[in-house]
Amino acid sequence: MTYFFETYGCQMNIAESAAAEQKFLARGWTRAEDAQVADLAVINTCSVRATAENRIFGRLGWYAGLKALRAGSPDAKSKSLETAAAYVRDGAKPLKVAVMGCMAERLLKSLKRDYPVVDYVIGTYAKQHLDELIDDIENERGLTHAAPRVNRRDGIITEDPVYSFSPVSAEEGAFSTFVPIMNGCNNFCTYCIVPYLRGREVSRPVDEILRELDELHKRGVREIMLLGQNVNSYRGHLHVVAQTGAAGADSAHGADSAQNAESAASATGAHSAAPTVNTADGVQSATVAVSADGSAAGADSTQGAAPAANAADGADSRIITFPELLQIIADHLRETHSSIEWVRFDSSHPKDLSDELIDVIARNDCLCKGIHLAVQHGSDRILKAMNRHYTRADYYALADKIRARLPNAALTTDIMLGFPGETDEDVEATLELMRRVRFQSAFMYYFNPREGTPAASMAEQVPLEEKKRRLQRVIDLQLEITQQEMAKHVGNTEKVLVERESRDDPSEVLAKTDRDERVAFKGAKELIGTFVTVRLDALNGNTFKGVRQQEN
Ligand code: SF4
After folding, report:
1. How far is the centre of ligand 1, averaged over its atoms, from the C-alpha of 341 (Å)?
2. Which of 23-27, 41-45, 119-123, 316-320 is most confident?
3. Can you give the pTM of this predicted structure?
4. Which of 11, 102, 185 to probe ligand 1 with, by most ligand atoms within 8 A of CB?
5. First and final CA of the chain: distance in angstroms?
6. Ligand 1 pocket at CB < 6 A
7. Residue 123 above 90 pLDDT?
8. Pick the CATH number of 2-157 from 3.40.140.10, 1.20.120.450, 3.40.50.12160, 3.40.190.10
9. With left for phi above 0 and alpha for psi between -120 and 50, is residue 142 left, alpha or beta?
10. Superfamily of domain 493-549
11. Residue 59 and residue 449: Cα distance in Å, rounded?
């Protein structure tokens, strides 16, 4: 049996598609090179912008034609579907179509009704039920005898809203990959649909994250991106085991004992099973299963799940913040001589970026110095209407702290133009903020109302042409600033990670710095996936031209 994934939207979707693929591979399925010859096509969708959804509706139309052809319909058109037509002549099986991701969650009830091409709708919380979908398809083909548990009447796979993290989200052979550490968002920015579709913040237990890092090390991964809608509000469980003696007991509970606590956890291979849910009232602590055995010699890192933490067996758990998590990860990578040398994270909310987080980044070389901090706007009035919980002055203070503590860091951002009620004065405030903070780069876009969010029904919507005009002003300024900021690094000698061959010049490869800037230099494709040292000699557009240096 074969599957084909078509993925839209954010990095979390890419990670979730890769994790879902592992399920199919584990069941003996293989990846089809082309949807036209797959047994199952899975479309992982995005709802953040209406344009993203419209594109997916268009794809469903294309899949309807493909499905009709694969079913042998005499009316099916084979234009642009030659591969499928040949496959049908050779006796192809029918195609099944599944839709997962945010759009599946948003249109859970109506998608199958409105688009009969869709066989399965997999809600945001139902990815753990992919095995049931696989059972269902195999069963229909007479391949298994497992009782199908998918609701055959409506084909909708949904569950109680409990988000589950996959053990590994890396694609086979990847040297750079995403590691989801939390999901959901409690912030409810007035323009954003994410909290409605991804639910409240759920943090992955520390031990699960470390186990994934160990697996990625075995695969030779060099760089990871810790992912979440709002990573710096991470509040995950760390299982700790009190050591004999007063010092050990203190280390499990002390406020600043992340390193000690991590040592105890990694020594025992501790296992915490449940994610942590951040509620409006604080942290709702999920039941935690922990290993009971505190002895390093006798610990079994793959099993050892006792039913609950209690003082009698010396096991306990505590909540870890994002800066603590980063320190734990940095220590773990160093202590395990991991292949992972660079750690990035995304997305960060300015209101949750603490001094402690800046300090942790400054202390650890493995934590990359490219910091993405979405400002969204430069006008306090608009920031308030967006429900962002910070002011322009707050953002300036944060940027100043980052510059002082991390002088070589590159600060990048997101900027939205055309929010309802935005005036020329507000646009000027945004331009002023950009001149003051001097972002290395920015993702700039205009407000696109999403049905179901407060901003969609706000008065004083800005006309589309005006939104585009304002956006262009911001883009023009940012292009200038990007050039000027990048030029400051010309002449540096830097460690870079080689990512791919250059399309323009096959004798060149493209790499990135730890600030996430692109570098082109002469080099063989065998360097892809390795770190090398490069001198940044010049700037060509937004790409450095470099020369490889001899490594020591
Ligand atoms: S922080 Fe705001 S923009 Fe980001 S996911 Fe949450 S609600 Fe959406």
Report:
1. 29
2. 41-45
3. 0.78
4. 185
5. 49
6. 185, 187-189, 192, 194-195, 229-230, 349
7. no
8. 3.40.50.12160
9. left
10. Nucleic acid-binding proteins (2.40.50.140)
11. 22
